[in-house]
Design brief:
The structure is a single chain. The protein has 574 residues and is α/β, with parallel strands linked by helices. It folds into three domains: 116 residues, 2-Layer Sandwich (GMP Synthetase, Chain A, domain 3); 141 residues, Beta-Lactamase (2-Layer Sandwich), CATH 3.30.450.90; 292 residues, Rossmann fold. It is 43% helix and 22% strand. The protein has 22 helices and 19 strands. The strands form four sheets. It has a seven-stranded mixed sheet with strand order 13-12-14-15-11-16-19, sandwiched between helices. It starts with a helix and ends with a helix. Bound molecules: zinc ion. The site of zinc ion (ZN) has 8 residues, from loops.
Length: 574
């Protein structure tokens, strides 16, 4: 017999057994003179279930499901079971008056499931409520620099231990929010345990934690995140939220095992930093024009590429805002939903709602515009391409180093290269650079090296900006407005490849990156280096900062002679 039939039969058999037991208990209840209850059909009072421990409930084969003052409603399987009698006696000794109901094993099992919620509930209670959000809100106003945070954490070393954990955590979160950190890192190393913030994309050391404090903080954070406490050798993900007076901040946490202990990263999703518009992206005028036109098209795939933390999702949110208007239905599938956008249906992947199954479900909802958080396998790639070909505008992201790298990447995922030209509209590549602080940036004429680096990049720029002689650029200095870092906020540097006839032909003929780049050259869209140099010249960022994120020597010239498709894949950032 086929396996399918076996499973089917097994399921039918156990279903029949369940029904049989239910009707047996129902008739036994009548014989014994008890009420019958099916716990699957009643609301179980959390206060009631807590009156007996999970262990005793299992041992006594019972569930307390309702309580009003000293009266209890208790579901039991067998009134003659001595263990049941023991638990009932003990409740009577405590002054309770039980009313007995008979129920089936399946029904009891359903009731015992509620203990899991209780555990979760207790964990959240111990965690969240222990962190005093009023204290966080108070401190947020106080902290101006990373040093303020380090000093406060060192100051509270002396207070008694129980209070110290909470106060340290409050300070850590308050500091992160006050300074606008995107992530909090706790990294145990052989000698010490580092606590760091990521501010405008760069990690800053805040303080070293002692081992004992670290252990307790990690436990607390795992509880808060609903992770399993005693699992220390596996990666775990979780999330929690804390509410401040004016906003709620969601924290997405992840823990991984390491040689010196678990290290934890918490990403703060602060809704107040979100503001999505094409204008805020910092697109150069050429690319802004191209993208505005592409976003008006009714169908096709628009992809943003770049490593983690390069602003891909922010760009997509801005595109969603741009296309959003009455009469257009927009649905997203994300992992997770990072920011809530008004009037857009946003869905989030889970165990049984994957990018693939979710995308199929979304297509049945008749949307005009779809955003798929990420294309990372063949099924999602093919479904997205199919959707783009059947009258939907589709936005998504790919993990590749460059815009042009998206072509070999899609083919590598299994997409038919002949489909790319007819479905993909444009591919955007991006990185984030830190924006110089307006209050303290310092101008200076370039030296010879800087002059050469800038003019070399500008030589290939399709519409080079006019530069003064001597060229003036800006450097980071540091003041009270920018946490002494010299920078405030971040902005994208971009490149893009439009899929026009020339590019489509190149993809079919020979999809190596330098061939496609050559085909795209007449489009006249600045490269990332060219775009970046413009942002150095207009004082948005410094040359040093640009060089930190973009390799200025890999311009149009060098890319032409650069390696093969395989070389590109080995350099993918995932
Ligand atoms: Zn400053």
């Amino acid at each position: 017999m086929q396996k399918f039939d076996d499973t089917f039969t097994d399921e039918r058999m156990s279903e029949m057994r369940r029904k049989e037991e239910d009707s047996l208990i129902l008739s036994l209840a009548q014989q014994y003179g008890y009420e019958y209850v099916d716990l699957r059909g009643v609301t179980i009072n959390p206060k009631a279930i807590r009156l007996v421990s999970e262990k005793d409930a299992h041992a006594g084969n019972l569930v307390v499901f309702e309580t009003t003052r000293k009266r209890l409603s208790i579901a039991i399987r067998n009134p003659n079971n001595p263990n049941t009698k023991t638990v009932l006696e003990s409740l009577k000794e405590q002054g309770y008056q039980p009313t007995i109901y008979m129920t089936s094993t399946t029904s009891l099992e359903h009731g015992w499931e509620r203990y899991k919620d209780q555990k979760h509930g207790v964990a959240v209670k111990h965690g969240v409520l222990d962190i005093n959000t009023d204290n966080i809100a108070q401190q947020v106003k106080k902290f101006k620099t990373p040093e303020d945070v380090s000093e406060h954490i060192l100051d509270i070393r002396t207070i008694n231990s129980a209070r110290r954990i909470s106060e340290t955590l409050e300070t850590v979160f308050a500091g992160a929010i006050a300074l606008g950190a995107s992530d909090i890192h706790i990294e145990p190393e052989s000698a010490d345990i580092r606590l760091r913030y990521r501010l405008d994309g760069v990690l800053y050391d805040i303080v070293d934690l002692e081992l004992e404090l670290y252990k307790r903080i990690i436990s607390r954070l795992k509880l808060l995140s609903s992770m399993i406490l005693n699992v220390k050798s596996e990666a775990q993900d979780g999330r929690f939220t804390f509410n401040l007076t004016d906003k709620s901040v969601e924290v997405r946490s992840s823990v991984i095992p390491g040689a010196a202990g678990e290290s934890m990263v918490m990403r703060l999703l602060d809704p107040s930093v979100a503001s999505f518009s094409m204008e805020n992206l910092g697109l150069n005028s050429i690319l802004h024009g191209v993208l505005t036109k592409e976003l008006k098209r009714p169908n096709g795939l628009i992809v943003t590429t770049g490593p983690t933390g390069s602003g891909k999702t922010t760009a997509l949110y801005a595109f969603l805002q741009e296309v959003h208007e009455e009469g257009i239905k927009i649905i997203t599938i994300e992992n997770p939903v990072e920011y809530k956008i008004d009037n857009i249906v946003q869905t989030q992947v889970s165990d049984d709602y994957t990018f693939e199954s979710g995308l199929r479900a979304i297509l049945r909802q008749d949307p005009d515009v779809i955003m798929v958080g990420e294309i990372r396998d063949r099924e999602v790639a093919e479904t997205a391409i199919h959707a783009a070909q059947t009258g939907h505008l589709v936005f998504s992201t790919l993990h590749t180093n460059s815009a042009v790298g998206a072509f070999p990447r899609l083919i590598d995922l299994g997409v038919d290269y002949r489909m790319i030209g007819s479905s993909v509209n444009i591919i955007l590549g991006q990185r984030l650079v830190r924006v110089l602080c307006e209050h303290c940036k310092q101008s200076h004429p370039v030296n010879q090296n800087e002059h050469d680096a800038i003019t070399q990049v500008l030589a290939t720029h399709p519409k080079p900006p006019t530069v003064p002689d001597p060229i003036i650029i800006y450097e980071a200095e540091g003041c009270e407005h920018c946490n002494q870092s010299g920078f405030k906020g971040r902005q994208g540097v971009y490149e893009a490849v439009l899929v026009d006839t020339a590019v489509e032909e190149a993809v079919i003929r020979d999809p190596r990156e330098h061939i496609i780049l050559e085909a795209a050259k007449p489009q006249g869209i600045p490269t990332m280096a060219e775009d970046g140099i413009e942002k150095v010249l207009n004082g948005t960022t410094s040359l040093t900062e640009l060089q930190r994120v973009v390799d200025l020597t890999s311009g149009r010239h060098t890319l032409k002679t650069e390696g093969t498709v395989d070389d590109t894949f080995s350099s993918h950032v995932v």
